[in-house]
Description:
Elements: H1 13-16, E1 25-31, H2 34-41, H3 43-50, E2 53-59, H4 61-74, E3 81-84, H5 88-94, H6 115-120, E4 122-123, E5 126-127, E6 130-135, E7 137-142, H7 143-148, H8 159-169, E8 177-180, H9 190-200, H10 217-233, H11 243-251, E9 255-261, H12 265-268, E10 280-284, E11 298-303, H13 311-321, H14 324-334, H15 351-354, H16 359-368, H17 392-407, H18 413-430
Parallel strand pairs: 1-2, 1-3, 8-9
Antiparallel strand pairs: 3-11, 4-5, 6-11, 7-9, 7-10
Helix pairs in contact: 17-18
Amino acid sequence: MYLKNAFGAAATLSLLMTSSAFAETITIATVNNGDMIRMQGLTDDFTAKTGHEVEWVTLEENVLRQRVTTDITTKGGQFDIMTIGMYETPIWGKNGWLVPLNDLPAEYDVDDILPAMRGGLSYDDTLFAAPFYGESSMIMYRTDLMEKAGLEMPEAPTWAFVANAARAMTDKDNEIYGICLRGKAGWGENMAFLTATSNAFGARWFDENWTAQFDSKEWATTLNFYIDLLNDAGPPGASNNGFNENLSLFQQGKCGMWIDATVAASFVTNPDDSSVADKVDFALAPDTGLDRRSNWLWAWALAIPAGTQKEGAAKEFIQWATSKDYIELVAENEGWANVPPGARSSLYENPNYKAVPFSEMTLKSILSADPLNPTVDAVPYVGVQFVAIPEFAGIASQVGQEFSAALAGQQTAEEALAKAQALTTEEMEAAGY
């Protein structure tokens, strides 16, 4: 569902801002990812242009999801802007919980937003959240360790190649692990990775009759493959590692490969933060030959909860933070490699950004994800690394706990899958499916 508008060329950011009779202080809930931290450091530019002040509530990913969901469903009114994604936006927009973004000025250029991002953040052809950045997932790998192992990474590798390379690159005595993958429990943590991975192995959450499929051989293959790989070639304590933990390990030179969000590319190649910045290259997320890769599709986006008393100021902030001019502001201060990726078409037409080593692979990964046809066999749902129904977050959080426990050795993969099948069936029956 794509928002249709014919907007003109971008103007300067000052023209985007409506003049406010009164300066407001808005409260924004956001995730503790690097791009959001960077945005906070540039907020003075927004205040200078509008007079509005910003108070930040910065939270770890699982905590953020819980806090904003609780606030929106109880009409708590704690936040004027929430950082949410492609899962929540259409559901909350349908429920009338978000302010429509259908009156952004022509200069903002809504049509410049990548269609995949617009579609995922819309309901009934209306945009309900603006993408701060968009992402898929891809392989980030150490070229020196790959060469040392006598291997060459294909642009589009299989899981069999990745597993072989991971084991070949592992040197546990020197704290070098062939692969780092998410293990921390959470519907947006380990289950985002495992759901996308399961697509490549031919698995699916539900069949066409909404019957849970965790008792299938495809899910058994997926989970056992993942656990065996991390036991053989992953870091200790992998069941506690999410995006930020694996990012830190990779930057310290402890991961041969990391399959995760494309947005991480700017952090692992930044010489100020990464000890291996000059030894990193990229490849598409792996497949198993079944015509589905293990990459997801996501946007961290800014939305306004219905009922805020500061809707005008909140819209001004969203216009500022998701504009072409914000991208230029980051480029001026931090360099083109560090601008928020994956949201606007014009970024990938900009010669300055085309020169960034990971820009092409990021775009290829985003364009190859298909939320309308995510699995090998037909399914009744939309979504690559999630199922776009309100019940999914609660169910997947429970399933994620079981899978994380299996990775930690607290139960077998078969036991985890049996529990996942039972709880998913119970929750879906209770919900009337």
